[in-house]
Amino acid sequence: MERYFPQARHVEVQVFADSQGQTISLFDRDCSVQRRHQKIIEEAPAPGLREDVRAAMSQAAVKAAQAVGYVGAGTVEFLVDDAQNFYFMEMNTRLQVEHPVTELITGIDLVEWQLRIAQGEPLPSTQDLTRRGFAVEARLYAEDPARDYLPSVGRISHLRWADPVPGLRQDTGVEEGDEVSSYYDPMLGKIIAWGESRATAIDLLRRALGEIEIVGVATNRALLSSVLGDEEFRRGAVATNFLGARREHLRFGEAAASAADLAMAAVWCAARRTDGNALWEDTRGWRPAAPASTSWRFGESVVSLDSQPPDRYLAKIKGEELRLRILARDATSLQVECEGEITPVRIFEAAPALHLWLRGRHAVLNLVGTDDSLQVVGTAEQGSLLTPLPGTIVAVHVAAGQHVARGASLITVEAMKMEHTLTAPYEGVVSRIAFGVGERVQAGAVLVELTPP
């Protein structure tokens, strides 16, 4: 039997041991913020732990490594309850994804240590190590948290990492043009920030996430940023059920476009010109003796835009009027003053989509029909009979002829180290199951045929 923890933290201790019999601890990390029992945010040191608990946990980790004659880098993981009692969970006999946060607070290259120990060298330091500051890491995944963390595959057509600044580290695994496949873990990179205080590190990491631009696959960027801004997280109140417990306060997808967003998108499109300065090459809807006027459709919203040179616009959206002025513009960015507030916007066009990044948000607008007709990308109906990505069938939950309700589990597909269960989009009778357990399927394959009642 195992003890049940209604709420627990996941805290681990980094240890190193050499072949000369020395074993040391390099302090603790908190990895409590998880989805599907996989970590997405880690930090060192663990927030809010009593110093006596830290010391006892480190001592227990060292004793565990010594008890088995361990040599090399390892991580001893514990569950910690509300009273800060800790319980052994497992030992990972390797460096882990989150080891950079330990490197940043100790100033030690753990990979170099691992290699030196493997060559038979003694540990370059004894247990009189010191830690400085705080470090926080976010794992950027190719997945859609709003769709139950569905992994995302595709070619990365646009990629821009955060600007390098002191205290920021980016360990990345993809470049623009790379294909994200279903064969590997969906992690695209690790963004790590260090600061003298925990709040400083969190703010730097959140700012860096807001600068990242990726087109071609969905990511968990918005969720990571939302967690870092959550008041409970910022006061260190983390647990392994954090995402579920704070669900109503977190943003699992990008926020809906505001009226100002739509107006700025319309201004970008209206201000576009082809090469040359002739009047017939001007695409702003100019008219003699009257303001240039164009209309742009964003889903159900229509933006009426009057051009008032030089570079001034009046946007009308559902009875609301917004005054805008272009302050700067180049091939990929726009700086706009909207109702007195200055907003820098970066734009990437991948027909038919228009991607805007502004103040840490990512808005995707779809151009349909004509150059001045846009609509917000919609979401698919919940439940599907098609596999959303290549993978392997690992479970079939229904049989031919079975009556199923809307939302019932049909088939489970494994891809990118995660399982995704397809559900019935409507009530019906299973008329055919196209694949069996163990078979590989391609994206878009029909897995189940469902006849409506």
What features would you describe in this structure?
The chain is of the alpha+beta class and 453 residues long. The chain folds into 3 domains: 9-249, ATP-grasp fold, B domain (D-amino Acid Aminotransferase, Chain A, domain 1, 2-Layer Sandwich), CATH 3.30.470; 259-376, Glycoprotein, Type 4 Pilin (2-Layer Sandwich); 391-451, Beta Barrel (OB fold (Dihydrolipoamide Acetyltransferase, E2P)), CATH 2.40.50. It is built from 8 helices and 30 strands. The strands form 7 sheets. Strands 15-16-17-18-19-20-21-22-23 form a 9-stranded mixed barrel. An 8-stranded antiparallel beta sheet has the order 5-4-1-2-3-6-13-11. It has a 4-stranded antiparallel beta sheet with strand order 27-26-24-29, with no helix packed on it. A hairpin with a 5-residue loop joins strand 7 and strand 8 (150-151). The longest helix is centred in the N-terminal third of the chain and has 17 residues, at 51-67. 34% of the residues are buried. Residues 369-383 have low confidence and may be disordered.
